[in-house]
Amino acid sequence: MLASIDPELDFGPRTEKSATMRMCAVSREVRPIDELIRFVVAPTGEVVADVKRKLPGRGLWVSASRRTVAEAVRRHQFRRGFKRDVRVSPALADETEALLVRSAIEALAIAAKAGQVVCGFAKVESALRDRRIRNTVQALIHAADGAPDGIRKLDALLRQNAGNNTEPEGFPTITALTSAELDLALTRSNVIHAALLAGPASKTFLSRSQTLVRYRMADADKTAGTGTKNSD
Question: 137-142 and 59-63 as β-strands: parallel, antiparallel, unpaired?
Fold first, then answer.
């Protein structure tokens, strides 16, 4: 039960059902761990974001929000939460976002190596027109700095398919990464559009991109729960 443990801290990955809910050290709200970021103290004494929730040691949970992380730094919440002197970078909110971006890039690279990504406008368009491939497409990926024309064309094709009941309702389109970041993940140049195909690695990328978008948008009164926008 939550009452039997420190509501803010943990001592590493847990398997109990109660571990799916944690308390934000700043807002004091109990939330699902997918809506929080775990922070740990590195051997150097510096607080770092454990974005993959795999680092050992005591963890402190903060809502997945840039503003909330910045507030935790400003209020010296990490020192109080860890009950010890720790080093906290004034730029921890920015550094956390950079780690979330890197985590999403790594997940997309793994999905690509597993054959679960189609990239390039022509190939994505072809995949959306091919019934056999289209039924395995889990999401569209557009570079955040991509030209609107290509995005509109692919989204229109996606909506057309949705109208024919060939795509799931609320089909996600992801715009969390820039073209340069997509290039890095897919080891190609000038990647603007990609399609994510079904598979375990794709699920990991969807989850990490969701966390990244939530972190960026949580304070903007926008729905960031899908980590994407819907096609409808």
Answer: unpaired
